[in-house]
Each structure stands twice: as C-alpha cells, then as structure tokens.
Amino acid sequence: MKYDLIVVGGGPGGLMAAKTAAEDGLKVVLIERKRNITEINRACSQIFYTHKLTVMAGGESD
Fold it and tell me: Is 7 helix (H, G, I), strand (E, B) or coil?
C-alpha cells in the first residue's frame, strides 16, 4: 500500500495531523500501538470517530 503520509502515534498531535492531512486529500495511515483508539486515555480521542480509522495491527478494522 502507498500512502502520502504515515503518522506514528495516536496522541493529540498525531490524531490532528492525520485528520487534517486526510481532509486535505492526502492518503494517510495512522499507526498506534493500542488496538482501539478509544483505549487511549486522552481527552481529544473522543472527537474522532473510530469507524473511520483502520487499525493496521491484527488486521482489524471498524
């Protein structure tokens, strides 16, 4: 697979970078060690919809 941007980490900066780049039309992959973004204990994670994210580890997707 080819991506325009690979973001490592689903923290506040990573989530916003991935979201902004995707909204600008880039093909983005977000890599996070947690299997589900809602497991990340950060306040900003609630503004992102997990069904729009593909979890690469384990081959799972929502």
Answer: strand
